[in-house]
Specification:
Elements lengths: L22 E7 L2 E8 L10 E6 L3 E4 L3 E6 L10 E8 L9 E5 L9 E4 L4 E7 L6 E6 L2 E2 L8 E5 L7 E2 L2 E8 L3 E11 L5 E11 L2
Antiparallel strand pairs: 1-2, 2-5, 3-4, 3-6, 6-7, 8-9, 9-14, 10-12, 10-15, 11-14, 13-14, 15-16
Length: about 210
């Protein structure tokens, strides 16, 4: 019996499987959010072509490393929870399961700028600094007919009482005390859905 010559060996092939889900982190600097690929994990020989970002942010991070910046609307600061997902897209046309990060962009409310008052019958003026959606004015000796010695608080805007003129917020009243405080605040949410306001103060005093 005659045997033919043996064939050449086939090229070596590595078996591959489904990649592990990547690890990402999400941060923000004011209204700029950043999704960063921390690691891609074990790709099980499938390789990594890109990390696909989905959910409340959509992007593709080529090369499976680096970061992606996205815009955060002002009204989302301290308020909205983002759900951001990430998956490894392998070079072997396979995709990992999603990893999920939930993220609420943080913002530290700043004190208002340019707070000033004029004499006993005063106009207090201030300028918004950063992101705020309300202002509180506190003063000792505030006179609202009749005058009282205890601290009285006025809030703006309220029922259309706030005045916006060339970027300055201001309110007029009679003041005979020595201490006045302006706080700008920003609404937020508690996990239970209860309302709250974060604030930062600027003070004005006189002799």
């Amino acid at each position: 019996m005659n045997w033919s010559q043996p064939s050449k060996a086939s090229d070596a092939v590595k078996p591959w499987g489904k990649p592990d889900a990547p690890k990402i982190s999400v941060t923000n600097d004011d209204t700029t959010g950043t999704v960063t690929v921390e690691s891609v994990g074990n790709t099980h020989n499938a390789g990594c072509k890109a990390v696909e970002i989905s959910g409340d942010v959509s992007a593709s991070i080529d090369g499976c490393s680096g970061s992606y910046d996205f815009k955060i609307p002002d009204h989302d600061l301290n308020t909205r929870e983002y759900t951001i997902k990430a998956a490894v897209v392998g070079k072997e046309k396979t995709t990992s399961d999603d990893s999920t990060v939930r993220f609420t962009p943080k913002y530290a409310v700043k004190a208002p700028e340019s707070v000033s008052v004029n004499d006993d019958v005063c106009v207090v003026s201030w300028k918004e600094n950063g992101h705020a959606d309300g202002f509180t004015v506190s003063a000792d000796g505030l006179c609202l007919l009749p005058c009282r010695r205890s601290r009285t608080i006025a809030r703006f805007p309220a029922q259309g009482m706030a005045v916006l003129f060339l970027g300055l917020r201001h309110a007029a009243f009679q003041w005979r005390g020595k201490h006045l405080q302006v706080r700008q605040g920003r609404s937020g949410i508690r996990p239970q859905g209860e309302g709250r306001r974060q604030g930062a103060d600027a003070d004005v005093g006189r002799q």
